Structure formats: C-alpha cells, structure tokens
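Cross-check.
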Amino acid sequence: MTNSWLNPSSGNWFSAANWSDGLTPQDRAWDSVFVGNSAGMTLTVSYESASSTQLNVLTVGTGATLAVSVTDGSNTVFCVNSLTINSGGALSIDTSSPVTLGSNPTVDGTLTISGNPAISINSRSVQGSGTLILDGTTLGDTNTPFQMGSSLTTVLENGAAVYINNATNGAAGKQIVFGDDSAEGTPSQIVFSDYNQTVSTPITGFDASSVITIAKGSAAPISATFVSNGNGTYSLKIAFDQWGNGITLTDVAFGPNSAVGTPTIVTNADGSWSVVNGATGYNRQLCFLAGTKILTPKGEKIIEDLRIGDEITTYVHGRPVTQPVVWIGTQHMTANPSLPLDQAGYPVRVVRNALGDGIPAQDLLITPEHCLFLNDSFVPVRMLVNGRSIFYDRGFPDYDYYHVETRDHSIISANGALTESYLATGNRHTFHQHGTVAQLGGPVRSWSEDAAASLVVSRDFVEPIFNQLEKRADALGLSQTVQSVQLTDDPDLHLLTPNGYVIRKIREAGGAAIFMIPPGVTEVSIVSRTSRPSDTIGPFVDDRRHLGVLVGAIRFFDADVTHTLKRYLTDETLRGWNNVEDGTCRWTDGYGRLPLPPRRPDAIGMLSIQIRAGGPYRMDDETASALIVQQHG
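Predicted model, tokenized:
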C-alpha cells in the first residue's frame, strides 16, 4: 500500500488529514509514500519537523514540491531508502542537519540541496534525466566520489563542490553547469579523484569563480591550458608529465560575461591541487593599486610597504580606532579589452577632489568592485563611474594590486578617502601573501554577518550619490574621458537554425513576431542585439546582464496541432537565457536556444514569439552580441 497525499493544494507533511491512510508517513516505519496528485496540479508540501524514521519508497509527483527545511543539530531529520522525483516534481533540502536519501535516487525532476554538509547517499550515485542543484553544498569527498547518471544535469552554485568518480566512463553525467556564484565570489568546483581521465561531459557557465580540483595524485600537475575547439567551446588540458598524461575536459563553454583566462595551478592546504583563474570576466577583487597611501597612527604609508603586524587607523562610529594588519595579499591583473569596461579588469581612477574638497587628496586607483564609504554605507565604485571624475583607466592593462586585512572588516582611509579593508569571503586562495611573515588563512566571512557597514547597491540609494558627484565634476570643469554612444530600439530579431540558416519574421501580430519554420527543423535560437541596463540607464543600476529580448508566450503551429511552449520559462540549464523570473516571461541573452516539439513530417510550421520588451541597445555592443553568438556555438 502507498500512503498518498490527499490535499489538492499545499499543506503540512505532518498533518495526518493530508494522507490517504490517515497517518503521517513517519507514524509507521518503512512506509511507501507518494507526494502529488493525479492531475499534476502545482502544490508545495512543507516538512518542518524532524524525524529519523526511515521511509521505504518516496515518490514526488509532477507539479509537487517537497520542501525539507527543519534543523535539529546533528540528529537526522529526513530519511528515505528509495527516492524518485518525477519529471516536473521537486525536492528542496535546506537544512544543515543530516539527511539520508538512500541508494541510487532517481531525479527526473529537480533535486536542490542547499548548504548541507551531511547529505548521505549510500550508493554514491544519482540517476535520472532531471537536474541536481548543489547550492553551497559539497557532494562526496576524496574517499567517496560520486557517479552521475548519463542523463543527469548537475548545477553548482554559491561555493558548491562535487567529487566525480572515474569521469572517463561517463560518470560526470549529461552536463555540469557552473551557475550563480555568491556575492562574495566563493568558488564552485569540480573535484576529480585521480589522473588520466578524458571528460566529454559538457561543462557550461565557466567563469572566474569556477575551479577544477585534483584530490589525489603521486605528483603535482605541471600545466593547465585551454585549447579552442573552433566552435565556441574549449578543451582544458591538465598535464602531469611531459608526455601529456593527465585530465582533459573536452567541452568547456564560458559564461556570457566571461572569456578564456590564464589557468593557474595552486596547491591547497590538504595537499590537493586546484586550477584557478581559468576565466576572466566579472572581477570581484576588492583591492588597491601600488602607491595607495593607507592612514596609520604614525601617518600615511604606501600599501606595498605594509606588513603583517603593522597598525593602521580604522573608523568605528566615526572615531579612529587602531587595528593590526593580519594579512596582506597581492595578485597580478591583465585586463581583457574584449569585455565591458567594468568586467575587463581595468582599475578605476577616482580623481583628486572627486568626492569633496581634498577627498581624495590625490588620485586613487582601485579595482571596480572596491567600495567607497559614502552616506554611512559601502558603495562599489563601479556604480559611480561617470567618465569624468571617476573613470576606468585603460592606461593600466597590467598591474599588481593589494589587499590589506584587519582583525575586523574596517573602514579605512586611502589617499584621504574612506573605503574598506579586505573581507575574507573565500577568495584568499587566489592571492599571494605579501611580505616574509607566514600567516595561516583565517575563517571565511560574509557581508551579511561581518561587514563594517552595509553594502548598498539599490538604485534609490546610489543614483542620488551618482548625480551629486556628476554635479561636482561639472564644478571642477572635468571633461568626458569616453565618447558618447549611439542607441537604437531595433533588436534585429531573427531565428538561427543549428546549421546556420537565418529565419526572419514574416509579420507581427498582437505584440508577437511570427516566423515560418521549414520542415525538419527541430530547434532554433532566438537571436537579437543585447544591452545591459547598467550601460543604457546608468552604472547606478546594479544589473549587468546582457539582455536580448523579454520573451512572453511562445506558440508553435505545426499542421493542425498547436503547441504552447513552456520549457524556456523553467529550465535553468537552457543555453542562451537569463535567470528564470516569474514564470510568464524570460530574457534571452541575445542567443536563446528554443527546442521545438515533435514535428509532423514535411509540415511547414509557424512560430509565434511574444516580445514584451527590449532595448534600447548600444550600437557599439555589436561586438558583444557577436561574442555571445560565438560562445554559444
């Protein structure tokens, strides 16, 4: 007998009235349970009490979401012997307490595991054709790597890691996606247990926070190199000897805002090796350039002369407080001119008097994500760039930059301007320690818990500051350092087939673009110009997505059959689309892949695509749109 969910809508797992047997599943051991309804209606079942009673079989049906969120220290809160998530179903686990998912869970829908260090899967394998999302979670370890089913997609987000076993034999699954990384830039990583593997599984979304780690090996890797495959993807070759033995990832695609970097091999504290800096792009480093003067109790001292143990002046509630330097880090940057200025790696120059009289006292050079302390809050300097008093200095294509960390995250003075010290949020491994005194890495911190002041990026807060600095630039008589750009509202919307055939719209009707689809075409890409709100509205808008067009309803007419397409609204792994929004529309990134339903033989189809918004577009972004097309192959 199966104990089935009765409530046609959402409800509490631990309410007996919601179950067909009149008992909650944990009222008896080894129960078989079905969550969902025969109509496949959308519902959410909340699991908010701890129970270690093991279920025999758990099936999450289409349209159902089971949300496990209870925490009970080190006690097991959820335990199942056999788990199946049907297509369209979802299981969300968001707890730090132990959870057991049995052997060979089958995920044809979506399994999301958030921040859980205590997930137990006896078989060390996950099967199915759906999506496994690891959000700040590590799956496996050096001694217990995992095998992913050949049709499973794994998404790594916010510092997640997955240990893969014998990837040459297909154990890495259908696809591995480097998804969203955290605001602190904590790296997500794929960990391989040994050498001599050729991984053909596509790895997408690779960016500056993506890391490849080798957990074991008799010798250190000697090189890591990206080689173009000629179709917008790359092979990453990690060699362990001069004969080419090692690990090869044959199908790596970079994220839309990233490009090939210079892979660097670092040795980790546990003796493993990681390949870092494999991509350039959104530079999250919060740093000063050489020559910056940091205020100390004995006066100003240039940052490259600071050492661990030196004291500097910090500010707490507006009053000076002396703190010791606990770490100094340095790194080298080579800018990538093919990327937008805020992501290319160029430093930002804040000219003398830009913020006020004598503030800064001399030009200040910092990285784009570094924050200035303004109106009692931290604001990233990239959001204040006006091209006059604050601008990207392209005279620095290569430079060294420095971190200075105090005991607590602090407000400090640099060239007379209030700014921030380093906050150790998980990217320390990418820096070399500066000086001769060895210092072990401290704990990982976060903006929400450990920052000296709030980090504010909302337009309502930043735009008035931006406008105030613009007026000050007028008063200083400063001219623009960049040329104005031409805008257009024309998205140049068209479709592209996998073999490169361009399809133009034949008409527009009711806000929808209508395209004629030739027989035999099973998928198309929605191609358009792109723009970023931070470019077309202003840098005070913290939205740097490359937006193509906002797509609403899509219908496909094939002979006498009408299909309403919905996958693009929910599938986070579908290439060429920005983040999933409210379920009714979604932005492309200029190259949105669109699989079509099964076709009638020899039939000509009609595709109707509702366009809700788009543009304006910068005409100088044509190269950016071309880059997106190239990266999608």
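The first helix runs from residue 341 to 344. The chain has three domains: 3-198, 288-475, 487-632. Passed to J.P. for a second look.
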